[in-house]
Design goal:
Strand content: 5-15%
Distance between the termini: 28 Å
Order of helices and strands: EHEHHEEHE
Helix content: 25-40%
Structural class: alpha/beta
Radius of gyration: 15 Å
CATH class: Alpha Beta
Number of helices: 4
Number of domains: 1
CATH architecture: 3-Layer(aba) Sandwich
Protein backbone atom coordinates (compact mmCIF):
# COMPACT_ATOMS: atom_id res chain seq x y z
CA UNK A 1 0.00 0.00 0.00
CA UNK A 2 1.40 3.35 -0.94
CA UNK A 3 0.86 6.68 0.76
CA UNK A 4 -0.52 9.99 -0.41
CA UNK A 5 1.84 12.65 0.89
CA UNK A 6 0.98 16.33 1.08
CA UNK A 7 4.28 18.15 0.60
CA UNK A 8 3.61 21.85 0.18
CA UNK A 9 5.51 25.10 0.44
CA UNK A 10 3.53 27.30 2.79
CA UNK A 11 4.05 30.65 4.47
CA UNK A 12 3.49 30.90 8.21
CA UNK A 13 0.11 32.50 7.53
CA UNK A 14 -1.05 29.65 5.25
CA UNK A 15 -0.29 30.87 1.71
CA UNK A 16 0.73 28.24 -0.85
CA UNK A 17 -0.38 30.10 -3.98
CA UNK A 18 2.29 30.86 -6.60
CA UNK A 19 5.52 30.08 -4.73
CA UNK A 20 7.72 29.96 -7.83
CA UNK A 21 7.09 32.96 -10.07
CA UNK A 22 5.49 36.40 -9.87
CA UNK A 23 3.00 35.55 -12.63
CA UNK A 24 2.52 31.87 -11.73
CA UNK A 25 -1.04 32.32 -10.44
CA UNK A 26 -2.57 35.77 -10.04
CA UNK A 27 -6.08 34.41 -9.42
CA UNK A 28 -8.08 36.55 -7.05
CA UNK A 29 -5.69 39.47 -7.56
CA UNK A 30 -2.83 37.63 -5.84
CA UNK A 31 0.25 39.86 -6.17
CA UNK A 32 2.85 38.00 -4.11
CA UNK A 33 3.91 35.28 -6.55
CA UNK A 34 7.48 34.07 -6.28
CA UNK A 35 7.54 34.42 -2.49
CA UNK A 36 9.47 31.15 -2.06
CA UNK A 37 12.29 31.70 -4.55
CA UNK A 38 14.39 33.92 -2.29
CA UNK A 39 14.56 31.17 0.33
CA UNK A 40 15.33 28.27 -2.01
CA UNK A 41 18.81 26.87 -1.38
CA UNK A 42 20.80 23.73 -2.28
CA UNK A 43 19.20 21.73 0.53
CA UNK A 44 15.70 22.63 -0.65
CA UNK A 45 16.68 21.85 -4.26
CA UNK A 46 17.93 18.37 -3.32
CA UNK A 47 14.75 17.72 -1.33
CA UNK A 48 12.51 18.72 -4.24
CA UNK A 49 14.46 16.69 -6.78
CA UNK A 50 14.44 13.63 -4.52
CA UNK A 51 10.69 13.86 -3.88
CA UNK A 52 9.92 14.15 -7.60
CA UNK A 53 12.35 11.45 -8.75
CA UNK A 54 11.18 8.89 -6.16
CA UNK A 55 7.44 9.56 -6.55
CA UNK A 56 5.16 6.93 -8.01
CA UNK A 57 3.13 9.63 -9.73
CA UNK A 58 1.47 12.88 -8.76
CA UNK A 59 -1.95 13.78 -7.43
CA UNK A 60 -2.91 17.21 -8.77
CA UNK A 61 -5.78 19.64 -8.55
CA UNK A 62 -7.06 21.14 -11.79
CA UNK A 63 -5.30 24.51 -11.45
CA UNK A 64 -1.99 22.90 -10.59
CA UNK A 65 -2.40 20.48 -13.49
CA UNK A 66 -2.98 23.40 -15.88
CA UNK A 67 0.05 25.34 -14.58
CA UNK A 68 2.33 22.30 -14.63
CA UNK A 69 1.08 21.08 -18.04
CA UNK A 70 1.81 24.49 -19.54
CA UNK A 71 5.36 24.56 -18.16
CA UNK A 72 7.00 21.14 -17.71
CA UNK A 73 6.63 19.71 -21.25
CA UNK A 74 8.56 22.78 -22.49
CA UNK A 75 11.03 23.04 -19.60
CA UNK A 76 14.56 24.31 -20.17
CA UNK A 77 17.58 22.01 -20.25
CA UNK A 78 18.56 22.99 -16.70
CA UNK A 79 15.08 21.98 -15.47
CA UNK A 80 15.18 18.49 -16.98
CA UNK A 81 16.12 16.85 -13.67
CA UNK A 82 12.55 17.72 -12.58
CA UNK A 83 10.87 17.83 -15.99
CA UNK A 84 11.71 14.26 -16.98
CA UNK A 85 9.98 12.55 -14.04
CA UNK A 86 7.13 15.08 -14.01
CA UNK A 87 6.53 14.52 -17.71
CA UNK A 88 6.80 10.73 -17.71
CA UNK A 89 5.26 9.59 -14.42
CA UNK A 90 1.49 9.22 -13.98
CA UNK A 91 -0.52 12.31 -13.09
CA UNK A 92 -3.92 11.87 -11.42
CA UNK A 93 -6.06 15.00 -11.63
CA UNK A 94 -8.97 15.84 -9.33
CA UNK A 95 -11.34 17.89 -11.48
CA UNK A 96 -15.03 18.23 -12.21
CA UNK A 97 -14.47 20.23 -15.38
CA UNK A 98 -11.53 18.67 -17.24
CA UNK A 99 -12.31 15.86 -19.64
CA UNK A 100 -10.14 13.21 -21.17
CA UNK A 101 -8.01 12.88 -23.06
CA UNK A 102 -5.71 15.26 -21.21
CA UNK A 103 -2.90 16.72 -23.30
CA UNK A 104 -0.01 16.22 -20.85
CA UNK A 105 1.34 12.71 -21.26
CA UNK A 106 0.39 10.06 -18.68
CA UNK A 107 -2.34 12.26 -17.16
CA UNK A 108 -5.85 11.18 -16.30
CA UNK A 109 -8.84 12.66 -14.53
CA UNK A 110 -9.92 10.83 -11.39
CA UNK A 111 -13.40 9.42 -11.98
CA UNK A 112 -16.30 9.40 -9.54
CA UNK A 113 -15.87 10.31 -5.90
CA UNK A 114 -12.36 11.77 -5.43
CA UNK A 115 -11.90 10.27 -1.95
CA UNK A 116 -12.78 6.80 -3.28
CA UNK A 117 -10.53 7.25 -6.33
CA UNK A 118 -7.58 8.29 -4.14
CA UNK A 119 -8.24 5.38 -1.76
CA UNK A 120 -8.06 3.03 -4.76
CA UNK A 121 -4.77 4.58 -5.88
CA UNK A 122 -3.35 4.01 -2.41
CA UNK A 123 -4.17 0.30 -2.70
CA UNK A 124 -2.12 -0.08 -5.88
CA UNK A 125 1.48 -1.23 -5.80
CA UNK A 126 4.07 1.47 -6.33
CA UNK A 127 5.83 4.39 -4.78
CA UNK A 128 4.09 7.11 -2.79
CA UNK A 129 2.03 9.84 -4.47
CA UNK A 130 2.83 13.46 -3.60
CA UNK A 131 -0.10 15.88 -3.66
CA UNK A 132 0.55 19.15 -5.50
CA UNK A 133 -1.92 21.98 -5.03
CA UNK A 134 -1.81 25.50 -6.35
CA UNK A 135 -3.97 27.26 -3.78
CA UNK A 136 -5.04 26.52 -0.25
CA UNK A 137 -8.69 26.45 0.70
CA UNK A 138 -10.12 25.96 4.19
CA UNK A 139 -11.63 22.55 4.92
CA UNK A 140 -15.20 22.29 3.78
CA UNK A 141 -14.84 24.58 0.77
CA UNK A 142 -14.79 23.64 -2.91
CA UNK A 143 -11.58 22.12 -4.22
CA UNK A 144 -9.98 22.88 -7.59
CA UNK A 145 -12.69 22.27 -10.13
Amino acid sequence: MRKVIADEWMTLDGVIQAPGQADEDTTGGFQHGGWHVGYFDDIAQRRVVDSVVTAGGFLLGRRTYEIFAAHWPNASEEEQVLAEPLNTKPKYVASRTLTEPLEWQNSRVLQGDVAEAVAALKQEDGEDLPVRLNRWRPLGTACDR
